[in-house]
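Appendix B, Record 12. Input sequence as logged:
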Amino acid sequence: MTRTAFSVTDVSAALGTPVAAIEVLDTFVASEAEVVRLRLRRTDGSSTTVIGKRATGAGATAARQEIRFFQQLAPQWNHPAPRLLGFQNHGDDVLLLSEDLGAMRYHVVGTEVSDAQLHGTIDVLADFHAQFWNDVPDYLSGASEPSVTSTAQAWPPDVITRNADAVRGEAERFFATTPELEPAERSVLAEVVDAWERQFRARVADGRAITLVHGDFHFLGNIFFTTGDPRPKVIDWSELKPGLAPHDLAYCLTVVPSNNRLSRDRELLRRYWEALRKAGVNDYSWDLCYWDFRFSVISNLFQSVFQRSVRWYRTSLAAIDLLDGRTTLTSKPPLL
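Logged structural output:
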């Protein structure tokens, strides 16, 4: 797609109000859509900026899911997403317009996350997960095609097998073009993926302690902060799916450095668990929460394969070892 993908006619139709002119200010990296910052000049001469996302083909499926989030799920709680300003949905051609967080003085902090921001992030996550605890919307409980974030998918159980097969196929292609990885590093994935599939199916077999997860919750581009407010705004809600609640936390903490990650992660996870309880989730033990967190770290390794990133593959290996994640592949989930 090119910048002409955002025409005055289409943007006006999506907003439901006429726009006189459009200027593309910035273009952002996105895997299956074109995402830009637009300056819109209204017919009265005033102007504003918005974020435009246009997706076609395979990317349109994710864009439609994001629209569904805003229409059906966002009204249910005090969500952290920017407002959806308008959209057009024409099958395999979808246009979304949303608030410009940059204009609202929000920004991505990357790896430089303060303790207050970590705590604010945990509070937002707990609110979100508690809202859909054991109450995943029916339309998100069906099987979906594996994607780069599909390893969070916990329901229905047969999707877990499809995800594991996708990991195996992508790993074969990744390793074939990645000579930097040592044989011992490669062998870990083959060692864990079969056990992960088996354990994940056992963990979710009775459908308990499952919630809705963001699926791509990270500080490098999807979580934004503004000065004076530790609670973030979060974008890209197209990968929502049933999952284990700590998955989002385990994923976002991957990039945050620490001199003692084991102690840091356990402390933050405890805060998260206590926030869940405060929000009314009383059927989720600390032992199961800690098991789920360490188990979720393993799926970070799979995501690094989908992303074909040697750096994140090795970062995930180190986290699995540090948090003793492989123990969850042989220990029974403490469901009782």
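The chain has a mean pLDDT of 92.
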